[in-house]
Amino acid sequence: MATEPWKGKNFLNEGDNFPVTSVSWDEAMNFCHILTEQERKERRLPDAWEYTLPTEAQWERACRARTETKFCFGDDEFKLGDYAWFNDNSRDARQQGARAVGRKEPNPWGLHDMHGNVWEWCRDVYDTKLKGGIDPEATKGGSTRVFRGGSWYVIADSCRSTVRVGADSSFRDVSLGFRVALSRPRNKKPLSRPPGDMDAQVRSTINK
User: Residue 90 gets which letter from DSSP?
Assistant: First the structure.
């Protein structure tokens, strides 16, 4: 993208395996759009699929991994240090900033850092009242967008699967990043069977 918005920020940790931070929702969506066009041009991505931010519902489903507890591993927040970088093992331990991904235990679906490390932008417009239904998405209501998951900066309670925060789409923060999802655009009909090596990715429930 030829940009490094995290440069010069406090608490900067960076490298190939670190999440990007200080990226706005607008920039995250622009990255997804360019990645989609690039992969389609190289014929690695069918037109019926795109890279984007997950909806809030998709994010929470991926985080929970079929659990109904406060965290993906249960309700005991004293176990959070095994799964997440958060206040107790980061800010209070004088080791501030994002950490390399994948160093904590994954959730039951094999996804790392769904709790803590950095907050993650979701696609939805923020609404105080969550939409119902299967895989809903809030698309109307202004420029305030949702981010989820907690971060290295916050206490354990703020890393729960249900915690949600809203901020303007231009907002940046050293503890805020994003996670890319592979998804079918909602205005296109689904394929009866994804081609080739897309199969494994399509089976991932984050995209259902």
Answer: T
